[in-house]
Amino acid sequence: MELPSLRGPYFDRSVSRNVTALVGRNAFLYCRVRNLGNRTVSWIRHRDLHLLTVGSYTYTSDQRFFTTHSPQTEEWTLQIRFPQIRDSGWYECQIGTNPPIGLSMMLTVVEPVTKIIGAPDLHINYGSTINLTCMVVHSPVPPPSIIWTHNDKEVNYDSPRGGVSVITEKGDITTSYLLIQKANYADSGSYKCTPSNANPHSIF
């Protein structure tokens, strides 16, 4: 016969306490509690000491916050629907002992960022090759498309000028290279990189 543990509830600290989420994509803070018994698990937001959830009940009027419980893994997961930058900060998973014991976790909410290397100004010699590199980071998925514009007109890779091409490599960081051979004065001006799922960025 297996005897019950005499140890009180405690946190499984193997769970990550630094969580990064993307703007608009559900955030998950995992809290694993051993030997909980008949105690409750609560989630508290540090910045205003706001009680968010107790057990499976949501105590905040912000219905983006709710808790799910998995008995098999002893996890009490705080979920935040459609997180925003302002949701970044410390959250505490708290066990209702006397006195309560807590485990703090840091949530960082980020949004996709577009950056052209060398921006805002880049100087190229006449007759040389222009190589503009646009990077998209923190994107939930690689952007389906990236549009390059020159002086607010979409770059035409099949123009009579020739020597204009683009190479795009998709992944956790998506990189798009705009190559313009034998640069001339008509190639001067503003270039903009516009991913389909992130804000654009320009270079002059």
TrEMBL record:
It comes from the Eukaryota. GO terms for biological process: synapse organization. InterPro entries: Ig-like_dom, Ig-like_dom_sf, Ig-like_fold, Ig_I-set, Ig_sub, Ig_sub2, Zig-8. It holds the Pfam family Ig_3. SUPFAM superfamilies: Immunoglobulin. Residues 9-104, 112-204 form the Ig-like domain. GO terms for cellular component: neuron projection membrane. This is Putative neural cell adhesion molecule l1.
